[in-house]
Write a structure and sequence with these properties.
Blueprint (H helix, E strand, L loop, with lengths): L3 H18 L11 H11 L4 H14 L3 H6 L2 H8 L6 H16 L8 H5 L6 H12 L8 H11 L8 H11 L5 H18 L20 H15 L2 E2 H8 L3 H14 L2 E4 L2 E4 L2
Length: 272
């Protein structure tokens, strides 16, 4: 349990750090709820250094939900390419269409409704509420976990998210959750560079699997080929790329299930 006095001291330290060393990102200097949602979907499992240039280019090309909703999937993928986890691009277009149809092109200001959007989970919903609408609620990501574990759970292994979320609620700045969470994330990111990564002590911590030789790598290869060449025959592509046919076939089938491509016999092409 975080005592009120400890929460006050912690907030003061974190906000002081942010005033001195806070990072600057394009999604932090805007008040457009749609753009903030786009940034949060891009940032899922992807480093800020990779997201920043892609976000700038994306918002120039697709400034609002309507432009995303109207784009074909090949165009969406080409703009997303380089961010990885490409099914997020499809979910973003589906979300754009829902927001256009039901919410005037903006993410809804309601956690339950946000959770109904494709690709939006508990963290993303609450982050959008805080950053776009100033609604305070407790949520966790890797840098927040690192800061909370180091300060409030010293020497404890396998810290449960329910306990971390309670700590996040206790230290939350109710009046300005947007600034508070930016500050807390930056402080946690700084800690991870100067301390053995505290977030590894979270009960839910897992290492990301190797990319080389993975199904993710094969999925990306298939999508790149379809983007650059048009419809691709798997057998020919396996011989050309040197990637095992079975892995390419599994990747194409998974992409088909996700709705990104259509697989007919041996030929893969973009959906739409």
């Amino acid at each position: 349990m975080v005592r009120p006095d400890d929460a006050i001291v912690f907030r003061k330290a974190v906000l002081g750090f942010y005033a001195r060393e806070g990072r600057i990102f394009p999604w932090r200097n805007i008040d457009d709820p749609w753009a903030i949602l786009v940034s949060e979907l891009m940032l899922q499992q992807t480093q800020t250094s990779r997201v920043e240039p892609k976000f700038r280019a994306w918002m120039e090309r697709f400034p609002d939900a309507a432009s995303v909703a109207a784009a074909d999937l090949a165009t969406i993928y080409e703009a997303w390419r380089g961010l990885g986890y490409n099914s997020r691009a499809l979910r973003l277009r589906e979300t754009a269409r829902i927001c256009e149809e039901h919410y005037r092109g903006l993410p809804p200001q309601d956690e339950r409704l946000l959770l109904e959007l494709p690709g939006v989970g508990r963290y993303t919903a609450r982050a959008v509420l805080a950053f776009a609408y100033g609604v305070p609620s407790a949520f966790l990501e890797t840098n927040i976990r690192a800061a909370l574990i180091l300060h409030f759970f010293p020497g404890i292994e396998k810290v449960r998210d329910r306990d971390l979320e309670a700590a996040a609620q206790a230290v939350l700045d109710q009046g300005d959750p947007r600034t508070w969470y930016y500050a807390l994330m930056d402080y946690g990111a700084w800690l991870k560079k100067h301390e053995p990564n505290p977030s590894r002590k979270a009960a839910g911590y897992t290492r990301q699997s190797k990319f080389q030789g993975s199904l993710r790598q094969a999925r990306g290869a298939v999508l790149r080929a379809v983007s650059e060449q048009g419809p691709v025959t798997l057998g020919y592509f396996a011989a050309e790329s040197g990637i095992e046919y079975g892995r390419l076939r599994s990747a194409a089938e998974a992409l088909s299930v996700d709705g990104l491509v259509i697989l007919e016999d041996e030929v893969v092409r973009f959906a739409d």
